[in-house]
């Protein structure tokens, strides 16, 4: 059934329902705006960072957020909010290219194009090289001194990880840390991600395969405030929209997107493919056969229990600056940022290098890792012939330990938390039926 | 499956401590909200058009008070102009996080928030005061300063009344404390639902008859979250002893409980399992 003027360009992105460009845009925009407004995710005067990957989703999110801004703080226009928007693009070319000199110090051609778009929209654009996450100081400028040295350090760190999945996960963890650090340096309260339902479903599948099933629900919620009050919270306004819809809309609006999709996963050695890539391929194949698969997965994730810091919907208005790990004393794994569970204690994985042989920051980081990361990312406990040398382990852990300390994160166990529901329940247990 | 005794259609989720009735969630909310509304009406607690400062600490009482007052104001059209008033005593690790909950309440209920700090008003934080005088009389300082801070904050915001979340348990403890101190003046005043009725800024306690446990239950089922970090100086407070005593009193002998139920027309009160004292009868 045609929904509007048949002169407009039509696309079929949802089952067999043709939509014209304005209707597609309005539908996507309305969903995202409704989520943002009903949970007060962007307040007047806020600073918001958009994590811009270069794909269709983040391009469309940039377009949408820029349109939501009012430039008048005192008398905002109707349906607009006065807030400051920064666009942060993590330049990962050094991680992907074989020759570090190829990446060069300047921005990529695509980043330059988006930079121009942002300038026109009156939005600040920052291209930050990924290797900046390993440097001290926390500067988010794109003109790092010793860029080649930094890129070399990054390559060396990633190369020290033999397993393709582990390298992907390390890359992802470094990217997340850098985004958080950069957003905080910009004074942001929140960080917008363009994750689509398709991407979230694929990611959930991959995480479940890697033993991080307990975190998949939280990783797909609208709001993710696990990092605590000192760091911005994530929000995902496109979580109910498919990649196909987002790509079609971005294309129809002629937004600046690169000809080739941004490289998300590292090339494995000898062509090995990571679990992440396999899961994504599986998800895409599934969707080709059954377009509603992604929404089915999202529906399951919605019904799984997440953590308190992601329950935006139930809490009504959300003050995500009080995001806490669910239980007092629960720490987040410094690598995957999932809460550790009771089965994540050391000793379960077999041979683990004695913490005393590692430098102190690395040892402390090791004590906080979850079992899935210890085995999956650090490669520990797989057996004597497979365990990495201590140098590799120390280098990886050291990188994450340094990040945690630099960001001024207190051990979450020491932070006071809202009264856990278990404690409330214990107080009224004799009255419950 | 037990059915709610009120609506007889939904599953009963809890037994109300006050009445021992088995209720579903919705009927429980209705019961609490209606009782608070009836208290407000019976005592003429508010007048139409009044500006009311809700003393908000981020704790369970003020969080639930903010929720219920905004609900009742809307449902029964009290016509009140509500706002939240928070005091920052400057106790590190105690107030900082609970203030975040109050800021969330501001967002959720769309009522404005004002924060007054001891530092701004008096030039001293509680931490600085305790460093100076020790932990013997610090509660006195804090209590006096907080009362004045609330008054000043409310006056600054042109409030007509201050509403606090003191519940039945709090008032019982206060009565006991004043009794033990032989403070007759306070003993006479403290159970009143309105204090300072003749002054420019009366204080009201809409939760005077609400059990603390029922406030926790309301917050639990409604999924309201709150902070209840014990003030770090509270182990030294006399109120703690009174609280323990009252909790022990609640584990009263079975016969008294049953008799009380009969006399109050609540024959089910005290019937059924009570975990508190293992069911042993003690003569009283």
From TrEMBL, chain A:
GO terms for biological process: protein urmylation; tRNA wobble position uridine thiolation. The keyword Cytoplasm applies. This is Cytoplasmic tRNA 2-thiolation protein 2. It comes from Auxenochlorella protothecoides (Green microalga). It is found in: Cytoplasm. The keyword Transmembrane helix does not apply. Plays a central role in 2-thiolation of mcm(5)S(2)U at tRNA wobble positions of tRNA(Lys), tRNA(Glu) and tRNA(Gln). May act by forming a heterodimer with NCS6/CTU1 that ligates sulfur from thiocarboxylated URM1 onto the uridine of tRNAs at wobble position. HAMAP family: CTU2. Residues 315-353 are annotated as: Disordered. Pathway: tRNA modification; 5-methoxycarbonylmethyl-2-thiouridine-tRNA biosynthesis. Belongs to the CTU2/NCS2 family. It comes from the Eukaryota. Keywords: Cytoplasm, tRNA processing. Gene3D superfamilies: HUPs.
From TrEMBL, chain B:
CDD domains: CTU1-like. GO terms for cellular component: cytosolic tRNA wobble base thiouridylase complex; mitochondrion. One of its GO terms (molecular function) is tRNA binding. Residues 52-228 form the tRNA(Ile)-lysidine/2-thiocytidine synthase N-terminal domain. ATP binds at residues 55-57, 61, 87, 165, 170. InterPro entries: CTU1-like_ATP-bd (IPR056369), Rossmann-like_a/b/a_fold (IPR014729), TilS/TtcA_N (IPR011063), tRNA_thiolation_TtcA_Ctu1 (IPR035107), UPF0021_CS (IPR020554). Keywords: ATP-binding, Cytoplasm, Nucleotide-binding, RNA-binding, Transferase, tRNA processing, tRNA-binding. Pfam families: ATP_bind_3. One of its GO terms (biological process) is tRNA wobble position uridine thiolation. Plays a central role in 2-thiolation of mcm(5)S(2)U at tRNA wobble positions of tRNA(Lys), tRNA(Glu) and tRNA(Gln). Directly binds tRNAs and probably acts by catalyzing adenylation of tRNAs, an intermediate required for 2-thiolation. It is unclear whether it acts as a sulfurtransferase that transfers sulfur from thiocarboxylated URM1 onto the uridine of tRNAs at wobble position. This is Cytoplasmic tRNA 2-thiolation protein 1. It comes from Auxenochlorella protothecoides (Green microalga).
């Amino acid at each position: 059934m045609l929904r509007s003027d048949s002169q407009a360009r039509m696309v079929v992105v949802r089952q067999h329902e043709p939509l014209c460009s304005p209707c597609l845009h309005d539908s996507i925009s309305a969903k995202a705006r409704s989520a943002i407004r009903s949970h007060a995710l962007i307040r007047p005067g806020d600073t918001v960072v958009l994590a811009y990957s270069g794909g269709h989703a983040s391009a469309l999110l940039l377009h949408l957020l820029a349109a939501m801004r009012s430039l008048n703080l005192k008398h905002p226009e109707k349906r607009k909010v006065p807030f400051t928007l920064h666009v942060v693009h993590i330049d990962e070319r050094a991680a992907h290219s074989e020759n570090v000199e190829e990446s060069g110090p300047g921005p990529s051609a695509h980043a330059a194009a988006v930079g121009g778009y942002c300038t026109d929209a009156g939005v600040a654009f920052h291209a930050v090289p990924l290797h900046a996450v390993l440097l001290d100081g926390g500067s988010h400028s794109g003109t790092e001194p010793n860029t080649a040295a930094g890129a070399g350090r990054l390559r060396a760190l990633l190369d020290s990880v033999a397993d393709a999945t582990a390298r992907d996960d390390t890359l992802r963890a470094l990217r997340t840390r850098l985004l958080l650090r950069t957003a905080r340096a910009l004074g942001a309260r929140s960080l917008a991600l363009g994750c689509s339902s398709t991407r979230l479903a694929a990611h959930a599948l991959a995480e479940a395969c890697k033993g991080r099933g307990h975190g998949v629900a939280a990783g797909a919620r609208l709001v993710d405030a696990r990092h605590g009050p000192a760091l911005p919270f994530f929000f995902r306004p496109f979580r109910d929209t498919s990649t196909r819809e987002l790509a079609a809309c971005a294309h129809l609006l002629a937004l600046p997107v690169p000809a080739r999709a941004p490289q998300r996963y590292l090339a494995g050695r000898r062509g090995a493919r990571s679990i992440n890539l396999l899961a994504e391929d599986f998800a895409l194949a599934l969707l080709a056969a059954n377009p509603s698969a992604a929404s089915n997965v999202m529906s399951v994730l919605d019904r799984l229990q997440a953590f308190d810091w992601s329950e935006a919907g139930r809490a009504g208005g959300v003050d995500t600056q009080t995001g806490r790990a669910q239980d007092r004393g629960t720490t987040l794994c410094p690598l995957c940022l999932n809460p550790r569970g009771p089965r994540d204690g050391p000793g379960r994985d077999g041979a683990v290098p004695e913490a005393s042989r590692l430098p102190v920051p690395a040892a402390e980081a090791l004590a906080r890792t979850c079992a899935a990361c210890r085995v999956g990312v650090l490669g520990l406990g797989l057996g004597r012939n497979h365990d990495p040398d201590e140098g590799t382990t120390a280098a990886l852990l050291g990188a994450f330990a340094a990040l945690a300390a630099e960001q001024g994160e207190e051990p979450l166990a020491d932070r006071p938390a809202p009264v856990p529901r278990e404690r409330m329940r214990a107080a009224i247990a004799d009255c419950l039926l | 499956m037990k059915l709610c005794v009120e609506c007889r259609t939904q599953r009963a989720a809890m037994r109300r401590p006050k009445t021992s009735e088995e209720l579903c969630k919705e009927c429980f909310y209705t019961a609490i909200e209606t009782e608070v509304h009836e208290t407000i009406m019976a005592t003429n607690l508010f007048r139409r058009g009044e500006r009311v400062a809700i003393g908000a600490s981020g704790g369970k009482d003020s969080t639930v008070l903010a929720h219920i007052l905004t609900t009742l104001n809307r449902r029964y059209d009290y016509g009140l102009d509500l706002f939240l008033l928070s005091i920052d005593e400057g106790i590190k690790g105690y107030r900082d996080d609970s203030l975040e909950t109050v800021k969330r309440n501001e967002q959720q209920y769309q009522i404005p928030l004002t924060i007054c700090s001891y530092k701004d008003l008096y030039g001293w934080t509680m931490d600085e005061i305790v460093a100076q005088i020790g932990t013997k009389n610090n509660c006195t300082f804090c209590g006096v300063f907080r009362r004045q801070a609330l008054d000043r904050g409310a006056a600054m915001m042109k409030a007509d009344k201050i509403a606090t979340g003191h519940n039945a348990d709090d008032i019982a403890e206060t009565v006991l404390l004043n009794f033990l101190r032989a403070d007759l003046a306070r003993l006479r005043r403290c159970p009143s639902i309105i204090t300072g009725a003749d002054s420019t800024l009366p204080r009201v306690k809409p939760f005077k008859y609400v059990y603390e446990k029922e406030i926790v239950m309301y917050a639990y089922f409604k999924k309201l979250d709150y902070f209840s970090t014990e003030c770090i100086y509270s182990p030294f407070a006399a109120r703690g002893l009174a609280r323990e005593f009252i909790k022990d009193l609640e584990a009263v002998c079975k016969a008294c409980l049953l008799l009380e139920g009969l006399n109050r027309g609540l024959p089910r009160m005290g019937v059924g399992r009570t975990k508190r004292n293992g069911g042993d009868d003690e003569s009283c």
